[in-house]
Amino acid sequence: MQIAPGIHSMSRDKPRKRRFTGGTLLRRGDLSVTDVCFEVGCSSLGTFSSRFTELVGVPPSVYQRQIAEMMAKGTYATGRPSHR
């Protein structure tokens, strides 16, 4: 499953663009959730986390941890980790 299913024009939808970009940065694993929040242009960590959770289904910290675990196990394929 893609990280951003159904996005056709991200430039018109800043929250989705931030979520998409945030997901990409979180998957890299070299930035904290706070760093990703500010990198995508969100000035509030709480707002970023709430919106990310609403759109993706898991908090950004959980998302990042699940990706890292999947990569360590060699089970990561392009997409979003499953919601637990």
Could you characterize the architecture of this molecule?
The chain is mainly α and 84 residues long. It has one domain (15-73): Arc Repressor Mutant, subunit A (Orthogonal Bundle). The chain is 57% helix and 0% strand. Helix 1 (14-28) packs across helix 3 (45-56). The radius of gyration is 12 Å and the shape is globular.
Keywords:
single chain, 84 residues, mainly alpha, Arc Repressor Mutant, subunit A, disordered N terminus
Write the layout of secondary structure elements.
Elements: H1 14-28, H2 33-39, H3 45-56, H4 60-73
Helix pairs in contact: 1-2, 1-3, 1-4
Summary, kept brief:
With 84 residues, this protein is mostly helical. The protein has helices at residues 14-28, 33-39, 45-56, 60-73.
* Strand residues, percent: under 5%
Query: Any idea what the CATH superfamily is called?
Result: Homeodomain-like
Distance between the termini: 16 Å
- What is the helix/strand order? HHHH
Work out the number of β strands. 0
Which structural class matches the secondary elements?
A: mainly alpha
The whole-angstrom Rg is 12 Å
**Overall outline:** globular
Which consecutive residue ranges, at least 5 long each, have pLDDT under 50? 1-12
The tally of structural domains comes to 1
